[in-house]
Amino acid sequence: MSQSYFSLKATADAQYTLWSHPDNPRIDFAYDTSSIAAGIDDLVDEFKAVIKNENLHIDTGMIAGYGLQWANPLIQITSSDGTTVLYGNVTKSDISDLIKEAQGLNRNPLDITLGMLHGQRNDLVTIEKHPYLQLEKERRLLRNLGFIDPANIDHYIARDGYLALSDILERGITDEEIRKEITDSGLAGRGGAFFPTGIKWGFLSSADKENKYLVCNADEGDPGSWVNRIIMESDPHTIIEGMIIAASATYSNIGYIYIRSEYPLAIKLMQKAIDDAYAKGILGNAVLESKLNFDLRIIKGAGAYVCGEETGLIASIQDSRGMPRIKPPFPANSGVFFEPTNVNNVESFASIPMIIRNGSSWYKEYGVDSISGTKLFSISGDIKYAGIMELPWGTKIKDVLKVVGGISNSSSFKALQAGGPLAGYLPSSIAENLELVPEQFKEHNALIGSGGLVFVSDNTCSIQLNLLFSQFVEDESCGRCTTCHGGNQRMTEVFKRISKGGGRKEDMRNLDIIANTLLYSNCVHGQASPTIMKNTVDLFADEYNNCTINKVCSGSTCACPGLIKLMIVDQFNPKLNDALQICPVGAIKKINGKFDINMQDCIRCGACTELAPDAIKQISDGNVYETPSFIPRLFSENFKNLIPETSLITPESITTNTKIRGEKSLSGMQNL
According to the model, what pLDDT value does residue 551 have? Predict the structure, then answer.
């Protein structure tokens, strides 16, 4: 190791020892995007106010969450002996008990105690024994999650951060040796394509150009996936270290981390990590006093889903419109600014340091023959416990469902939607027998994707789910090729019509034509767009035919507005008055003391059934009920009586100064 790293490590060890064994007890708040949504900011303010007002000798700090999104807000308490205990679902009513816990005044575990992170208490079990974590063999990618302040570079260094990089530079390990170690480990890309990382680096290293670029794809646009965000918010330096090692293996000198703007906390922490790395000589010229030069910066994406595709991402970095292009040329030959470029996923770069530290054989202890190591999965949907798990490849889906508490609300497991809107939709009869292995999903014309697992209950209508995703892929099409943009428009139109009760026998054939046409799209966005649709038509044929042909759906499962009739089943339910008030179009009325629903006005928004589920039921009787288009409250005649003090705006009252093709200004929306 270089002397520079020895110096950094000595300072970091001293700082981390003081942090992990504080003089005063410390309350750390798990701060990430999920906890912010759960109200952690208000909780932090309340804790600090109590500590200040009572002049308590208790410190506070920040860590990242432990991946238990269902238990947010999370806090952990560290005592001076290094004992650290994790608590979940914390509310303001728990503040007094937790203050006493920090002071050592409580004798019994609290109901909100999740487990021990560090140290030993006879009355508490370690967090590894928590039922939710029983499928995790070992946390590798998440080894620092909850054990460091992600904004403190010394914490990362103290836990052997940048050790792998220093070892490479000190020992003079060649680029070829680095690539061989990564190839031997079996590390494959984690963005969904699963291309071998070491081989991909080889393409870039052989390019004969002065400037070479490394790009970290942190766009992560799949609904139901937040695995990249977790790493960036909990351990940003492991990504930086992985990119510097990749630079040494590919002769690259410039790097970009492309993060979507919807991740402000991740951007903030990654930028802090980059700044600190520059300050300590880990980035820039002469990395750790070596001959390696590597510069790194963040690029903020505007949120276009299609920029998750590497050529679309590269276009966005260049300040062009984010549109994928046809390959070849491949990025290794012509990428950012037409220079050789390599694009890897966040997880791929984050895996590099631990492989170099521990060796390829160690990394292959987990996984299957076709793909090695562990993978992060974000687990959500109709389940009791949503969160992140680091699982070995080959873990069974049915085991995952078991540890997350099964399907919620006493419902049944209907389907698995894995890998985002391009990946697939598999019924439980298939999904529960699958293992988390890419090849097994491909056998059923589905993909495992980047790591999002969404469990779907039998309360979900497959037609509505298809409409949701077809609208998504249509909206997110870049528009470069008519095949994709026009094909997804047609698919959306078909499902909209089916949803309104206008399904036809020929729709199945038309959807098949659309799917076959979309295969000729320029990029994977268009090519994979019909995946969920094809799974539905093939694997949920009975449900599809009922909605399309028979115009009947099974009970509450159906959400197709044209097939739904709302019926009041309990006239004496007190929540009916609230339902009447909340109806946005005034479809619920009370005449002569009796409630009724005018289905001609009803837009099937679901507000009344959600508010009064025991009083209002959905039925499907084979009849088609015309569903009006949604009328914005601004123009609704029904609200004139509800808000008489408001001056309603009508279309005729709006004037625009827009000029059309050089003509005079036109007045009135009807002219536009």
Answer: 87
594-615 pLDDT, tens digit per residue, is 999 998 888 888 889 889 989 9
Residue ranges of E strands in 119-190: none
- Domain for residue 11, yes or no? no
153, two tokens: 């570079």
Burial group, residue 1, by CB count within 10 angstroms (0-12, 13-18, 19+):
middle
CA distance 20 to 82: 6
Using pLDDT thresholds of 50, 70 and 90, give the confidence band for residue 149: very high
Asked if residue 290 and residue 208 are part of one domain, the reply reads yes
Distance CA 51, CA 59 (A): 9
Q: Return the CATH number at 46.
A: 3.40.30.10
| pTM of the predicted protein model | 0.88
Single-letter code of the amino acid located at 334 = S
pLDDT (tens digit per residue) in 218-276:
999 898 999 999 999 999 999 999 999 999 999 999 999 999 999 999 999 999 999 99
Domain boundary among 524, 550, 576: 550
Q: At residue 193, what is the residue type?
A: A
Cα(132)–Cα(586) distance, integer angstroms: 45
Separation of alpha carbons 246 and 239, rounded Å: 10
Q: How high does pLDDT run on average in the chain?
A: 89
3-state secondary structure 298-344: EEEECCCHHHHCHHHHHHHHCCCCCCCCCCCCCCCCCCHHHCCEEEE
Q: Tell me how far apart the terminal alpha carbons of the chain are, to the nearest angstrom.
A: 70
